[in-house]
Design brief:
Blueprint: E1 2-3, E2 8-13, E3 22-27, E4 38-46, H1 49-68, H2 74-95, E5 103-104, E6 106-112, E7 115-121, E8 126-130, E9 133-136, H3 144-152, H4 158-163, E10 183-184, E11 196-200, H5 209-218, H6 224-238, E12 246-251, H7 265-274, H8 277-314, E13 365-366, E14 369-370
Antiparallel strand pairs: 1-2, 2-12, 3-4, 4-5, 4-6, 6-7, 7-10, 8-9, 8-11, 11-12, 13-14
Helix pairs in contact: 1-2
Amino acid sequence: MDLLDGRFAAQQIPGAREYQEDDYGLIEPGDPDADGSEVLLIADGMGGHVSGDTASRTVVKTFVETYHSTDGPVPDRLRTCLNAANGSLAEAIKENPELEGMGSTVVAAVVSQHGLDWISVGDSPLWLFRDGKLRRLNADHSMSPVLANLVAVGRMTEEEAATDPKRHALRSAVMGDEIHLIDVSSQPVAVRKSDRVLLASDGLMTLEDEEIAGVLQNMKDAPLSEVAEALIYAVEEAGRPNQDNTTVLLYTPETDCGMETVLDETTQQQSEQSQRPGRKKGLFWILLCGVLIALGVLAYWFMSRTPDKEAVVETTPVQQAEPPKQDVSPPATRTSDLPEVQTESKSPQTELPAKDAPAQLDTGKVNGDSLTKKTGGVSAKPSTPPDTTSQSKGMR
C-alpha cells in the first residue's frame, strides 16, 4: 500500500512463525497536531505470542499519541515518546502479571526540514540508501557487534561468531524498566529527494547488506511498494528454517532536507589543526621567539652604533691659547654593555585523552533467558501487505 503520494510503502510477513510480533506506525504531516514532520516507526515485540504482540502494539500506540502532544527539538520529543512507551509497558505488566518479561525493540525516524533524526533501542535497523550505497545510521544493540569485535582482536573466528547462539541476544530493549542502551541522533542527517530511507525488523537481516543494496539499486526507478515486495520476496527465497517476523518500511523525502557539509582539502586541514590545541600553542611560541630574536638583533645594532659616536666626541683635542707642551692622553673610550637577549621556547605538551573504555553491557532477561528472539520451524508464508493507516498495526 502506498501513502504520502507514493513516497511510503510497508510490507511484512510472519516468516516461520504462526504469529506476528512486529508492529509499525506512521505519522503524516496531515495528522492532527502534526508539525510538518513525517515520522516512521517499527517495534519488534518479544516474549511469546500474546506478550510480544501486546508489547509492540503498546509501544507504537503510545509513541504516536505522545508525539502529537509534545513540542520542542526533535531528539527531545523522541526521548519523551520512548519514556512514555516504556512507562506504558510497565503499567500493562502491573495490571497483568502474566505479561511479565514482555518487551520490544523500537526504531523511529523523523524527517523534517532540518533533516533526518532518529531514536532506537534494540537491533531493528535504520538505513539510508544513496548513490548505490547502503549506510546504517543507528546502533545495533544485539550481541553481533560484540562478537565482531572479538573476531577483530583475534579472540574468535568468523565462523564461530556466525554460529554463536548468543549472536541475536539483545543487550537493550523496552521492557517497562531501566533501558540500558539508547541510540539517539546528535544532529540531523541531511537527506536528498533521491534517497531512500529503510526501516526494518531484524528479520530482514537474513539478507546481507550487499543483497539489500542490490535490490534497492536494481529497482531504483520502481514504485516503493514494488521495492518493498522485492525485499520481502528475497527474504522468503533465502529459505531460512527459523525465519523471524519481517517488516519493511520504505520512504523517500519529498524535497532535499537539511544542510550537507562538504569540506574541501584546505578546510579539512584547518579543521584538523583546530582539533590539536597543542599544535596551535607550539606555533604561538615559535612566533613569539622569532619576534624576540628580531628585537634582540635590532637592540644590538642600535647599542653598538651609539658608543662609536660618543668616542669620537670625547677624543677631539681641546684648543687653548697657549697649549702646554705635554703629553695628552686620549680619554678612555666607553663602550656600552650589551644586554644579553635570551629566548626560551617551550612547546606545551598536550596529553591526549585516553580512549573511552567500552561500556559494560547488561543483558536483560526474558522469562529467565537472554533477550533472544526465539523462532520456530514453520515454513514461511507468502507476503501479505498490511492494512496501513496513519497508525498502522501489524497482522495479528
